[in-house]
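User: Before I run my own analysis I want an independent prediction to cross-check against. Here's the chain; please return only the structure tokens and, at the end, one sentence I can use as a sanity check.
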Amino acid sequence: MAAGKGPSRGNLTFVGSANMATWRTAMDHALYGEGGFYRRERPATHFRTSVHASARYADAFARVLISVDEALGSPPRLDLVDIGAGCGSLLAKIRSAVPAELAVRLAPTAVEVSARPAELPAEIGWLPEPPEEITGLVVANEWLDNVPLDVVELTPSGPRLVLVDPRTGAERPGSPPAAEDGEWLDRWWPLLEPGDRAEVGSTRCAAWASVISRLRRGLAVAVDYSHLRSGRPAYGTLTGYRDGHVVPAIPDGSCDVTAHVALDACASSGLDAGATASVLTTQRAALRALGLTGVRPSIELAGRAPRDYVAALCAAGEEAELIDPAGLGGFGWLVQSVGLPIPSSLLPP
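Assistant: Structure tokens:
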């Protein structure tokens, strides 16, 4: 659906009582099924991410990539994998920001379910799944929040899966969650009062563990809306986005459907899958450690080099947006490595 058009209803078919499905099933069909949102839409059309906000974001990841390359001893081939790559622009920007000597050894790969954009440089690969073996850097920017998951509500009869009508968003309680999901809830998102809801992050944990298990040596970074066990939202975070606006989270294929990520649970799964070092931080802290400050240039520069002043002022504004703790800077960063330490450039002071 192009920006400016009215909502469409996708091509979803469900069987069962009143067309009800679990949220996990409904999200999967709405986002990734035939005619689903991510098979026909480009994310930049509907919402603004750090990638779209500024090239300074790609510059920061270029510095991370350089650090990874040095830690790996400058191998003949260095993988750069972007999971949930959208149109692939982050890869193209990172590739153009690294030294030429590194660029010729770089193997950039976009992982995305939609068709490859015609304008994407030929040097960038395009796959529906991550490569089986990765040596280098993996970036997952706002990917985990779109991994489908179930919703559970605590009722007077105990926890129950929430069923949803994908045509209208109407809900009703279903059966108890599976035993493994109940164990995940007990550990990571315990429900305390009737009416409390949890978004069962076991699917996100498994998805992240799969990324780490493919990493032979290198670094993986997940950046997303997130929360920790000490502050889970009592009623969940399911949200819809369409044409730059927040809309009801109706899984009919007409909008993005997202939910914040329990990144601490994903961190634990990554360690179980083989990560040898792990850092959980915020985008503000990570980007500041990478040199983004948002500090305005001296007004003295305006007098002697006005063009340089304007360029520096624009860069400062873009950096300020990326590290704003009330906006993009509040995103969670999960940084995990296999076979090498976390680069010092990513460690907050």
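Sanity check: The chain has twelve helices and 17 strands.
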